[in-house]
Automatic annotation (TrEMBL):
Matches recorded under Gene3D superfamilies: Trypsin Inhibitor V, subunit A
Protein name: Uncharacterized protein
Keyword Phosphoprotein attached: no
Species classification: Eukaryota, Viridiplantae, Streptophyta, Embryophyta, Tracheophyta
Family, per entry: Belongs to the protease inhibitor I13 (potato type I serine protease inhibitor) family.
Pfam families: potato_inhibit (PF00280)
Source species: Panicum virgatum
GO-annotated biological processes: response to wounding
Keywords: Protease inhibitor, Serine protease inhibitor
Residue stretches in coiled coil: none
InterPro entries assigned to the protein according to its UniProt record, in alphabetical order: Prot_inh_pot1 (IPR000864), Prot_inh_pot1_sf (IPR036354)
């Protein structure tokens, strides 16, 4: 495999001082982080939903993993008996598709999209549905 010099003089696709990891697209975030850490042990891995706002500041040891595939069944918190309270059919969909499906069936839902592994509040909230996402959908790079 050939490498292409990046703006920092480092290799984009292979070797020491890599700045991009196209091979991790489609991997779970945890697996992708392990691949990146082999090349860049001091990397500060940040896992984010692909539609989540991100700062534009340049941080030389930060690598963001943008994820967007529903990883586990979203469940409504504190849902009364007899009402739809889970959506197993959205597992494997993009978060945007899952949001549309859930909101079409539960318009008053307070839906949150959260990368798997990110800490969440333990409190229970009426109408809250969390969608957990965990598959890398964009090529991660340093910055």
């Amino acid at each position: 495999m050939s490498s292409i010099a990046g703006a920092s003089g480092g290799s984009i696709t292979g070797g020491k001082n890599r700045i991009r990891w196209p091979e991790v697209v489609g991997m779970l975030a945890e697996e992708a982080a392990k691949v990146i850490k082999k090349d860049m042990p001091d990397a500060d891995i940040e896992v984010m939903w692909s539609d989540e706002p991100a700062s534009m500041d340049l941080v030389p040891d930060r690598v963001r993993l943008f994820v967007d595939t529903v990883a586990k069944t979203p469940t409504a918190e504190l849902e009364p008996a007899g009402h739809k309270s889970s959506w197993p059919e959205v597992v494997g969909m993009s978060a945007e598709e899952a949001l549309k499906k859930i909101r079409s069936q539960k318009p008053n839902a307070d839906v949150e999209v959260v990368p798997v592994g990110r800490p969440v509040d333990a409190d229970l909230k009426a109408n809250r549905v969390r969608i957990f996402v965990d598959t890398v959908v964009d090529v991660p790079s340093v910055g």
